[in-house]
Specification:
Elements (H helix, E strand, L loop, with lengths): L1 H22 L7 H16 L1 H4 L4 H17 L16 H12 L4 H8 L3 H16 L18
């Protein structure tokens, strides 16, 4: 039990930030991220005897990702002030895992049940959309005036 408490004390902040990025919330308003983290830590604790031999952080992060993937596709709401809000949940998840957590695209693909090419394409699209947001709809052009004959 003490080992798990020490793990949460050391890794809890980073895991919460990762969950906050994944949910598209802000640091000061992140109830979905906190709920997601609580579920991931509960699953990690339930598997603690098995997890201790490996990487507990990797396990908890994997739980965050899979829990989000299973719930986010149904709940698409994000915080409007988040710069990640314009991305789909899948794009946010892959982008955060790849660029914030540094996980290889092949590992992300395996975690989410995607092909590596699909994970790579989604990551590229998300990065492009974040760096170069699509512009709003083109302004309507006035209809041409009829020329009197």
């Amino acid at each position: 039990m003490r080992e798990f408490e020490a793990f949460v004390a050391g890794a809890g902040g980073r895991l919460l930030w990762t969950a906050t990025l994944i949910t598209g919330e802000t640091a000061d308003d992140n109830p979905r991220a906190r709920r997601l983290l609580a579920l991931a830590l509960a699953r990690t604790y339930a598997s603690w005897d098995r997890v201790q031999g490996g990487d507990p952080y990797d396990h908890a992060r994997g739980q965050l990702a899979t829990r989000f993937a299973h719930s986010a596709w149904r709940h698409h709401a994000t915080h409007p002030d988040s710069p990640l809000a314009r991305l789909s949940p899948q794009e946010r998840l892959i982008l955060v895992l790849r660029h914030h957590e540094g996980i290889a695209e092949e590992q992300i693909a395996a975690l989410l049940g995607l092909s590596p090419e699909r994970a790579r394409a989604i990551c590229h699209r998300a990065t492009t959309n974040l760096l170069h947001p699509p512009r709003g709809p083109a302004p309507a052009r006035p209809a041409p005036k009829a020329v009197p004959s």
